[in-house]
Hints:
The complex is a heterodimer of chains A (about 45) and B (about 400).
Chain A: H1 2-24, H2 41-46
Chain B: H1 6-33, H2 39-66, E1 69-70, E2 74-75, H3 99-117, H4 127-150, H5 155-159, H6 167-185, H7 200-219, H8 227-255, H9 260-274, H10 283-306, H11 315-333, H12 351-382, H13 389-394, H14 396-401
Antiparallel strand pairs in B: 1-2
Helix pairs in contact in B: 1-2, 1-3, 1-7, 2-3, 2-4, 3-4, 3-6, 4-6, 4-12, 6-11, 6-12, 7-8, 7-9, 8-9, 8-10, 9-10, 9-11, 10-11, 11-12
Amino acid sequence: MDISFAFGSFVVLLGAWTIAARRRSGLHPLPARTAAGEPGFLRRLAS
Amino acid sequence: MGAVNAGDTAWVLASAALVMLMTPALGFFYGGLVRRKNVLSTLMHSFVALCIVSVQWVLWGYTLAFGPDWHGIVGSLAWIGFAHVGATPNADYAATIPHAAFALFQMMFAVITPALITGAFAERKRFGAFVLFTVLWATFVYDPIAHWVWGHGGWLARLGALDFAGGTVVHVSSGVAALVAAWVLGPRIGKAREHEPHDRRMMLLGASLVWFGWFGFNAGSALAANGLAAIAFVNTNVAAAMGALVWMTIAWYRDGAPNSTGAAAGAVAGLVAITPAAGFVTPAAGILIGGIAAAACYAAVKLRERMRVDDALDVFPVHGIGGTVGALLTGVFATTVINAGGANGLAYGNPKQFAIQCVAVAASWAYTIVVTFVILKVVMLLVPLRVSEREEHLGLDVTQHAEAAYVH
C-alpha cells in the first residue's frame, strides 16, 4: 500500500516536471504524436 | 544471519554521510568553474540530483542494482521500495552491518554519478531536461552497470573484475556519458577564452571537500572498520596528493604557472584513478596510480581542447580517462597481500586479471555510449535539451531558476 502511494507520487512528479519543462519551453504541455503536431493519445484524452 | 557489528555499522553510516557531502561539494567545485551567471544552476544540478536519485534508489534503483540476479545483467524487482532491506545484514553484500546501511551507502554512489555528468552540459542545459535525463540515466545506465560489477551474480563480478569503489561503475560510466551528452548538446556560445571560471576559491574549496568525502567513498567501501579500510584511506589520500603534484608540475612547465585549477583537477584525477584500486594495492602503487592518472588526464584535457566537443568542465578527461586508467592499473598493481579477497595483477604474475579489467572497461564504455545516446534522444522528444540562445546569453540562473547567485 505505502509502496504504491510512494511510486504514484514519484510518477506524478515526473509528469509534473515534464509538463513544467514543456510549458517553459513554449510547447504544448503534452507531446504531439507527429512532428507536424497531430494530437496523440494524451492530448485527445486531456481535451 | 550474521550479527550486526557496531563498529562496522558506525563506520559505514559515517561513510555514507561523507559520500553524501561529496555531491554538494561537487556542485561548488563545478560552480566555481562556470561563469557567474550560471553558478546557481550548476549548484542546483548537484543538489537536485541528490534529491531525485535518493527517491529513485529506494523505489526501484536499489533492487535493479543489487536485487536478486537476473541473468547477470540486472537485479530483479524483488526489493522494490526497499522490500527485504532492513535492520538485519545481507551476507551476500556485508555480513556485519544492517542491509539498510549497505543500501544507504550505495545510494550515495548512485547520487553522485549522474551529478558528475552535469559538468559536461553546464551553462546550456535546460533544467527540465536535466531532471528527466537524471531519472532515466540512473535507471538505465547506472543501475545495470552497478549490478554487473557489484551485484551478487553480476556477469563482470563473476568474471572476476576488480572495482573496489567505482572506477568503472561511477567514473567510467559518468565520464563517457559526459562525452556523449556534450556531443549531443553541442558547444556553448562564444569562444573558449570567454568561458573563464568565475571563482577559483569556490572551486578549490569544493575540490577539498570532495577529497574529504572521498575517504568515505573508498575507505567506506571496505564495508567494515578494519585494516582494509585503513589501507584504502591511505591510498586515497596519497593518490590525490600525487595527482595534484604531478598535474601542477606539468602545468608549470607547459602552461607557465602552477595554477590552482590544475592542482584541483590533478587531485580529483588521482582520486578517480585510485577508486577502483584503493582496497587492492599498496600505498606505493597508490602513489604511482595517482601520478600516472594525473598525467594521462592532463593529456586528455589538452586533446579534448582540440576537439569540437564542448565538455564544459572536462568531465570526460578526468573521470572517463581517469576511471579507465585506474581500472586498468588495478589489473596491474592489485595484490592479494593487501586484500586476500581480491586477486594478483599483471605486476604480480597474473596477466589474466589485466585482461579481465580490459573487458570490464570496454563493456562499460560501449553500454554507456549507446544507452546514454538513446536516453538523450528520448528526452529530446519530450523537452528541448538546450536553452535558447537568448537564455544562454542571459545565463541559466535567471532564466531557469529566476534567481541570481550574487546581488552585486
